[in-house]
Design brief:
By secondary structure, this protein is α+β, with helices and mostly antiparallel strands. It has seven helices and 26 strands. Strand 13 and strand 14 (about 140-145) form a beta hairpin. The chain is elongated and about 80 Å long.
């Protein structure tokens, strides 16, 4: 976990004017609220305050999470935040603030509560150039920083109304290669919720072909999706030289090719030796779910391939007796191990 993420988790504050007013004064929010900053879900350290429909949370994390530098005058309870060409000065308890020298109105004044300086999220975020969206259905607040459009479309992809490629979903348009989008959240291993530069929200495939978006959490989800897909073929018979165009039988490399193609749209070469040239080399000590492991077999330097399944387990096929199966990455396999390649 990065220092920035730790700071966000421990300090991030939330303040959002909800569409339905809740009549409570300085009361903790009755329902948990999910917070996303540029697609990353965060958890504030302390419960928000709900004041007549406006929710407030700690101030420092809110500024720092969005890249502002702070100075605090404890005597006057005044904070000055600077980000780029924006300067915001606010005195706790006041209903106004100075934004680049001009007076700006707050919906609800900030206040001190249980040792935390609380301030409205929407006011602070928008002052710093971010966008704030409230999703009543999921109880989520989405904060998008000013530099949010960080993900590039690398292959033309449909923007869809739901995270589904079936006929029940509506295409909101084709995003051409080179388009910029902001990833609001990772729906699952296969879908991203995004916002386009012209503020249209929808869903795009997270398969590696379509965008350059990568994150540790998405890569882990995609590795697990590969294993789940491969396990659907457990006990499928082994056949050396099996055709990759069918799934009644597999050999080691046709199995790997099928799993990567069907799950993530990644087209690998047909034979294990060529597959070992794909991706990048990784060491045994840094294996991640979904990595490919290559071994000597049949007198060949590389004659067998398996998918690393995590927890020192591998998923592969090589014998008519077992077919597709899981087993330990044991000493017998480590003695024959040649290299590991990371495709994702």
């Amino acid at each position: 976990m990065t220092t920035r993420t730790t700071m966000l988790l421990s300090l991030l504050g939330l303040a959002l004017l909800l569409p339905d007013r809740v009549h409570a004064d300085a009361a903790p929010s009755p329902q948990p609220i999910s917070i996303y900053l540029d697609g990353q879900q965060l958890q504030p350290e302390t419960q928000p305050l709900n004041i007549s429909g406006t929710v407030l949370v700690p101030m420092r994390g809110l500024f720092e999470a969005q890249g502002a530098e702070l100075s605090w005058d404890n005597a006057s309870k005044t904070v000055t935040a600077v980000k780029g060409g924006t300067a915001l000065t606010y005195t706790l308890g006041s209903s106004t603030a100075l934004l680049n020298g001009k007076t700006a109105q707050l919906a609800v004044p900030g206040q001190l509560s249980q040792g935390y300086s609380m301030i409205p999220l929407r006011f602070v975020s928008e002052a710093l150039g971010s966008q704030v969206t409230w999703e009543p259905a999921s109880g989520s607040v989405l904060i998008s920083s000013a530099s949010a459009y960080e993900t590039s479309v690398t292959w033309g992809v449909n923007l869809r109304s739901t995270p589904d490629a079936g006929s029940s979903t509506t295409s909101l348009g084709l995003l051409p290669a080179g388009s910029k989008v902001h990833v609001i959240r990772e729906v699952d291993a296969l879908w991203l919720e995004v916002r386009t530069a012209d503020h249209v929200r929808g869903y795009v495939s997270s398969k590696p072909k379509f965008t350059d978006y990568r994150s540790p959490s998405l890569l882990q989800k995609q590795g697990e999706a590969l294993i789940a897909s491969g396990k659907k073929y457990l006990n499928t018979p082994y056949e050396f030289g099996a055709s990759p165009d069918q799934t009644d039988t597999f050999d080691c490399s046709s199995f790997v090719k099928r799993v990567f193609g069907d799950t993530l749209g990644i087209e690998l070469p047909r034979v294990s030796y060529d597959q070992a040239q794909e991706g990048r080399k990784v060491g045994v000590g840094e294996l991640r779910t979904g990595d490919l492991l290559f071994f000597t077999a049949r007198g060949l330097d590389i004659g067998h391939v398996a998918i690393y399944a995590g927890n020192n387990r591998i998923l592969h096929t090589y014998s008519k007796e077992q077919g597709v199966h899981m087993e330990d990455f044991s000493s017998k396999w480590k003695q024959r191990f040649v290299t590991a390649r990371r495709i994702l």
